[in-house]
Amino acid sequence: xxxxxxxxxxxxxxxxxxxxxxxxxxxxxxxxxxxxxxxxxxxxxxxxxxxxxxxxxxxxxxxxxxxxxxxxxxxxxxxxxxxxxxxxxxxxxxxxxxxxxxxxxxxxxxxxxxxxxxxxxxxxxxxxxxxxxxxxxxxxxxxxxxxxxxxxxxxxxxxxxxxxxxxxxxxxxxxxxxxxxxxxxxxxxxxxxxxxxxxxxxxxxxxxxxxxxxxxxxxxxxxxxxxxxxxxxxxxxxxxxxxxxxxxxxxxxxxxxxxxxxxxxxxxxxxxxxxxxxxxxxxxxxxxxxxxxxxxxxxxxxxxxxxxxxxxxxxxxxxxxxxxxxxxxxxxxxxxxxxxxxxxxxxxxxxxxxxxxxxxxxxxxxxxxxxxxxxxxxxxxxxxxxxxxxxxxxxxxxxxxxxxxxxxxxxxxxxxxxxxxxxxxxxxxxxxxxxxxxxxxxxxxxxxxxxxxxxxxxxxxxxxxx
Length: 466
What we know:
The chain is α+β, with helices and mostly antiparallel strands. The chain has one domain: Penicillin V Acylase, Chain A. It has 15 helices and 14 strands. The chain has a 6-stranded antiparallel β-sheet, with helices on one face. It starts with a strand and ends in a 5-residue tail after the last helix.
């Protein structure tokens, strides 16, 4: 059963989120503080920036401010520490993701599919657990399923009206302060039912963008939304600029990876393989995703989705304009396949390219495929690489109070009450749900190890201003 956090108000949600997981949240905030120190952040400047962000939340998104206050109270820290920690964790680098959306006429039976290949360093499991989903249910707002860690960086993937979303990180240099990507996503999920409503959230609010030309900055993201009307969009943004592309203009499909394809990169300061070689794999993954969507267009169902998300093929056609020519039979570009694996890890080691090997093993890794199927009130998730793991269907119709849940239940072809297996393996101490003091202690230790590896990768992965 999914971890469901119910609360009568926003403040209560923050307190409930921390209940029984105080050690894990404190470890996350401690890691965030170390990250800021590692970057040489001026404490006075950080405090002032956090103060400005809290003031912006009070004006634009008071509900999130109250959640932070509730979490801070439960942890015995100041609200500004929670705010600073969330913003620091969100600006970590190293995530990938190759995503797509398919709506009629591209799908069979009028289905709506939103697919997210969630690519992150394996250590991220310490934060999100084996089952990275939970349900946020606060009185007065739409309930929705989230991926991540509550309050600090929860990403809404499906709400009670069927609005579904997925994201992938992207570097940009057109930076500025505003609501973080997580806050924009949450605001859309708890208040909107359509993609037009979601787009309005991005249009009507200042957008926080952290400068960086990494393979990704988590806080900067391309966003896919789809609704029960069969509409879908991808939103690409920087602080001052934004582009919205409709699936209707592409036969009902859209694909997205870790760079801007619709937003002019001369405006956003987005990366290309010449300005940031580590983004080369993103171009290859995106080209392959579009290729496969064209192959299956008109016949996309769950079987086709699985074939796409487990794909290990390569397509280097988009790299030609940058003067990059690679044979499909030669050594692969790092991070170049939709289902990501560190294909070149041992090649790098044999050539004594130790940093390259470390970067690839932490970047080229698909932790889960998450497939949103709102008409069936179901989120399918693979607990590992989709090429190696079967889908686990997660029924959310009741938790999200979906009006069509009874009809969807009649069409189900699986048992709706998913529960993690009871095992005796040591690795299970890292897994959620059913967190224990021991599991949180072990995950806290793991977060410290993640921080050490992050510091080692910093000089290679991120190029920042100043």
